[in-house]
Amino acid sequence: EACFKIRDYQCALTQAQNVIALDSTNAQAWRISGTISYGAAKAATGDAAVAQFNNAIASHRKYIELTGATPDSQNALVFIELAMALNTRGGYEEALTQFRTVVAIPVESRDIYAHMGRAFGGLKEFDSAVAYFEKHKIWLSSQPADFKSTLTAGELDGMVGEMLYSKGDHAAAIPYLKIAYALDSTRQETALQLALAHHNLKEYRAALPYYKKRIAAGLGERGWPVYLNGAYCAVAVAEGEGVAAPVVDGTMFWAAARAR
């Protein structure tokens, strides 16, 4: 705990792991291990981040198992970090369970409703995801003027647009996606979603500029559906009304784009 108090987190993690090696029933050591691993995961990337998130999940679960802890204002951080780590690793059902226990304390941790929206999105419960993103907006409006969210306005609108797009409500998705893209034109996935949303609505002239933007940003070897869809829209625009431009399924490409 001395290392933790002076914010020497590597020292604290090493000491916690040493304690656990000697006594695997030391709940406080598991709690410290979970919190430090969670912080390290947020600062890391790739496999290192995955390993730290997994350790945070395992450590906080062990702490709860050993103590029989139920969420309250004193230990809410354990449940928040567990939920956040689970959300990152795709454990959406358990993440929602933990988020709900925190809200029931009641503790409204920073951006918790947006994180719940992400979990619903991961479960493909798109209506619930949108509802929680909107709840997050309401919550934000009640915060002090100097409050800083972990999400930019562009990210939030982008997530709402993505959920609406994913459920097939292209017309409703477009205004949100346009706001997100206007605020951050580096959002290449948003440009692609805008292109596809307009394309699905047979708004070929509107779709074409977004295909061009996505192509200009560079595509990998799986990017052929973007070129093909853009070409179909270009032909439809050139030929005029009455020409249909089919939408090529690019599921493999979209999945690869997300992974990157």
Could you walk me through the main structural features you see in this protein, from its secondary elements to its overall organization?
The chain is mostly helical and 260 residues long. Helix content is 72%, strand content 0%. The protein is built from 14 helices and no strands. The chain has helices at 2-5, 9-22, 27-43, 46-67, 76-88, 92-103, 112-122, 126-141, 153-166, 170-183, 188-200, 204-216, 224-239, 251-259. Helix 9 runs antiparallel to helix 10. The radius of gyration is 22 Å and the shape is elongated. It starts with a helix and ends with a helix. Mean pLDDT is 89; it is low at 252-257.
Chart the SSEs and their pairings.
Blueprint (H helix, E strand, L loop, with lengths): L1 H4 L3 H14 L4 H17 L2 H22 L8 H13 L3 H12 L8 H11 L3 H16 L11 H14 L3 H14 L4 H13 L3 H13 L7 H16 L11 H9 L1
In short:
This protein is an all-alpha fold and 260 residues long. It is built from 14 helices and no strands.
Strand and helix order: HHHHHHHHHHHHHH
- Biggest beta sheet attributes: none
- Tally the beta strands: 0
What is the percent of helical residues? over 70%
Uncertain residue segments: 252-257
- The proportion of strand residues reads under 5%
Mean pLDDT metric = 89
Can you count the helices?
A: 14
What is the first-to-last residue Cα distance?
Answer: 38 Å
Structural class: mainly alpha
List descriptors.
mainly alpha; elongated; 260 residues
